[in-house]
Amino acid sequence: MDPSEDSLLDLVFDVIGAHVGPAPGGLRSRIVDAALAERMTPTAACRRTAAELDALLGSLGAHEWSAALEGTSREVRDAVLHLLGVERYLLGQLGRGPSWSAPRLEDHYPATVGAAADLAEAPSRTLQDAWRRAAADAVRAATDVGPEQVVVFHGLPMTARTLLVVRTFEIWTHGDDIRRATRRPLNLLDAARLSLMSSELLRVLPFGMLLRKVTRPGRTAQVDLRGPGGGSTVVALAPDEAPGDPDVVVSLGALELCRLASNRARPDDVDIVVTGDAALLEPMLVGAAAFAVD
Fold first, then answer.
1. How far is 228 from 226, CA to CA, in rounded Å?
2. In 13, 145, 236, 262, which residue has its Cα 20 to 30 A from 88's Cα atom?
């Protein structure tokens, strides 16, 4: 939200306070969150998340670039090299750079390493600068083609809008990988991005379930998301079906759903409340994580 909008909200609350008394606790923050959610576009979300990662990288000491990423043999530097490769791969898919062959999701990491191989030994700040420029170019290219333009991502056709949300997921996820490795607080995101990411995730959930061969034709779920970015969504559990009456109601935090979808949380570690046919939960979670590529 830019300063003029924030100042306008301050003025509105001052006027309300003068006539009817102070607003109830938390009301202003809820209105601000709602206003942000209304204007948060996939382009804005991706740019904001990239800017946060760039700031994080700029804060790292020289020794922190070699910090080990949790659960892998890779280092912080490897994560940034990978992200640079992703941007270059996407630029190729968008017709703005060399094309890199990666027809399957399993090809994601090897292809991105190859795409960034020329900077494998570059100084850390050179690597950061190259990623920043490539990320900005990729977001600009995805925006320029229009939100409904179909782009192929590892053999999966998706709109440019969905691609930008996928990129927001990946940049945020690897940013938190780096935060864990360097003992920094995790990025909890704002309500606007959580709402955008979770709503897009639930929109494509039936296709994720199809990708993993766990669809449940004729079945419907209601997903109630708690906390910032929360809300309620009813979704059919197979593509091209209209949702019916919910067979299951699943309640969890919006942030936790996004972490599950990016394979950075396990179901056993998340407070999930299930009412109805609990057997539908597992295929839903499998489908939600279908687009996580590393």
1. 7
2. 262
* Structural domain includes residue 16: no
Provide the 10 A C-beta neighbour count for residue 183: 8
**What pLDDT score was predicted for residue 105?**
85
What CATH number is attached to the domain comprising 128?
Answer: 1.20.120.450
Do 151 and 43 lie in one domain? The reply is yes
| Cα 109 from Cα 72, distance rounded (Å) | 13
Q: Answer yes or no: do 47 and 162 share one domain.
A: yes
> Which domain does 258 fall in, by range?
192-288
pLDDT mean over 146-170 = 95
Q: Tell me whether residue 59 is exposed, middle or buried, using C-beta atoms within 10 angstroms of its C-beta: 0 to 12, 13 to 18, 19 or more.
A: exposed
Per-residue pLDDT, 230: 97
Residues 175, 178, 182: CA angle, nearest 5 degrees: 140
User: For residue 30, is it within any domain?
Assistant: no
pLDDT, tens digit (0-9, with 9 covering 90-100), for 208-238: 999 999 999 999 999 999 999 999 999 999 9
* pTM listed for this prediction: 0.86
In sequence order, the 6+-apart residues with CB closer than 8 A to the CB of 263 are 289, 292
Q: Is the pLDDT of residue 27 over 60?
A: no
**Nearest to residue 237, comparing CAs of 212, 213, 215?**
215
Number of H helices, E strands in the chain: 11, 6
Residue 9 maps to a domain: no
